[in-house]
Amino acid sequence: xxxxxxxxxxxxxxxxxxxxxxxxxxxxxxxxxxxxxxxxxxxxxxxxxxxxxxxxxxxxxxxxxxxxxxxxxxxxxxxxxxxxxxxxxxxxxxxxxxxxxxxxxxxxxxxxxxxxxxxxxxxxxxxxxxxxxxxxxxxxxxxxxxxxxxxxxxxxxxxxxxxxxxxxxxxxxxxxxxxxxxxxxxxxxxxxxxxxxxxxx
Amino acid sequence: xxxxxxxxxxxxxxxxxxxxxxxxxxxxxxxxxxxxxxxxxxxxxxxxxxxxxxxxxxxxxxxxxxxxxxxxxxxxxxxxxxxxxxxxxxxxxxxxxxxxxxxxxxxxxxxxxxxxxxxxxxxxxxxxxxxxxxxxxxxxxxxxxxxxxxxxxxxxxxxxxxxxxxxxxxxxxxxxxxxxxxxxxxxxxxxxxxxxxxxxxxxxxxxxxxxxxxxxxxxxxxxxxxxxxxxxxxxxxxxxxxxxxxxxxxxxxxxxxxxxxxxxxxxxxxxxxxxxxxxxxxxxxxxxxxxxxxxxxxxxxxxxxxxxxxxxxxxxxxxxxxxxxxxxxxxxxxxxxxxxxxxxxxxxxxxxxxxxxxxxxxxxxxxxxxxxxxxxxxxxxxxxxxxxxxxxxxxxxxxxxxxxxxxx
Lengths: 201, 408
Description:
The complex is a heterodimer.
Chain A: H1 5-16, E1 21-24, E2 30-34, H2 39-48, E3 56-64, E4 73-81, E5 86-94, E6 100-102, H3 111-122, E7 125-127, H4 169-174
Parallel strand pairs in A: 2-5, 6-7
Antiparallel strand pairs in A: 1-2, 3-4, 4-5
Chain B: E1 19-23, E2 35-41, E3 44-51, H1 59-63, H2 72-76, H3 83-98, H4 104-132, H5 137-157, H6 177-201, H7 205-211, H8 219-224, H9 229-234, H10 241-244, H11 265-292, H12 313-318, H13 320-331, E4 339-347, E5 350-358, E6 366-370, H14 372-376, H15 380-384, H16 389-398, H17 403-407
Antiparallel strand pairs in B: 1-2, 2-3, 4-5, 5-6
C-alpha cells in the first residue's frame, strides 16, 4: 500500500499530538511545523518508524522572515522516503536572537555541510555539530549575508521598488526589510516632482 | 594519532612521520578550484580535508533581486557541463509555481536537449577519469562529439556553454531544420564513437587496475551522505528522479536505470557509460515522437501562457498584445502567485533541486538550490581514507565534481 500524506499526518499526530502544527500540502507536498526543541525527535521518528521510513535528507536550508518577531528564522528540512517514493517538508522556527537548533548530523552525514552552509548564510547555531564553521564565505566574515537586512542593490535606488509597479500594500509590507531600509529622501539624480515650483527665470 | 605507519624512519629521526600536502586550490589534477589538505603517510592518505567556496558567487542572494526569467542565467553557471538541464529544471520549477502546462512537443524537445547534455556531462566526466589514470586518447577522441552537442545548442539558442536555453513555457524559437540535421548526425555517428570509447577503457587492464576498488562506498553510506545520480546508482541504489518523480513527460519513455554494485570508480564509470546508451535511446524515441506531430501541432514550441512566456521579438515590434505582455513580463507586472515549491530534476551528477518561495512579489522571496555535488563531496574524506595519493585524484574526477555547482 502506498504511503499517503494522510497516513503520514495521522502517524505523526498519534506520536506527537498537537505539538506539530500548520499541516499544509502546497503543490501536493506535505508540510508542517515542529517546535524548535523537537526537530531531532521528529526526524528520528520519521527515520525509525517502520511505516514512514524517511531516511534520505534531500535538502536542508533556512529562510529569514524579519516580520515574524520571535520566529524570524525558519530551518526547512526536505525528507524523502525512497521506498514508497514520497517526500515531505518540515520547518522549525527560531528567534534570531537565540538561533539554536539541534544538529541532524548524528542521523545524516549529509547534514554536515548543509548545516554549515545554513550557519554560514543565516547564522543558525546547530547545537552539537562537530565542525560548525563557515563553508562558502571567508572565515573572517562577521555577518550572515542571506539575512534580509543585507539588501543586494544600492539602496538609494527607488526605481526598482515593488511599489513602482502597482504592488503596494501587503506585498510591500511583507518586503519590509526592517532597519536597513534607507530613508528615501532625495536620492542623487531623482527628478523633481511634477508640481514643484519652477525655478525663477 | 594511532596510525599504522608505512614509512620506516631511522631511530631518533626529527622528521615528521606524516606529510601535509595541499592539493589545490589550483592544481592541474583537480579540474576546478578545489583545495584538499591531505595528510599523507608516505603515499597513503591518513585524512583529507576539503575546502570549498573559492568561486562562490552568491547566486541565492542575487536571485532574490531578479525576476524569474533572469534567474535562468544564474542556473547556467551551476553545473556548466550540462547547463541546459539546469535551465530546464528552473523553467519547470517556475512552471509548477505558475501553473503553466507545457504541450507534449515542448516536453519532448526538452528531453532531447536534456539527454544531450547528460551525454556531454558523462562524456567529460568519464574521459577525464581516463586522463587522470594516464589515458589521454579517449578524452581527445570524444571531444569533437561534445563539440557537436554544443553546435546543436548553438543552433537552438545561440550559445554554447552557458546556454540560457528555453523560456518559462517552452523554447524561444522553434528548432530549425539545421538543428534536427545535427541531431540526426549525432544519433547516427555517436554510437560508434561511444563503442570505441568503451573499447579504449572498459576492459583496459591499466584502467581497471587503477579504478577497481578505488573510492568505494556502500549503498547505505551513500544514502546517508545524500548521494544522488550516477554516484548513488553505482553503489547499487536505483534512484533516478526521471523515474521516481517524472517531469517533462519522462513517463512516456521506457529506459533502464543502470546500477553498479561496489560504488567504486570503475562502477561509476560503467554506470555513466550505460546511461549514455540509455540517453541515446531516449533521444531517438523523443526524436521519433517529435517527428510524428502533424499539422499545427508540429510547430508548437511553447505553451500558451502569454503572461509568463516572453513573446518573440518580431511580434513585440508588430503586435500590440505581444508588446504589452513583453513590457509586463520584463517590468515584473505579471501576477506571480505566492507559494512554496520544491522541484527537482535529474541533473548530470544527481538530483538538482530548486526550493522556491514566492511571496507574490516580482522576485523570489527565497530560492535555494539543492546542488548534488556540494552534498556528496562531503564523503570525499571517507572515500579516500587509506587510499593512495594517486587514487585521490581519480576519486575526485570520477565523482564528477563541478566547482561552479558546489560553490553556487
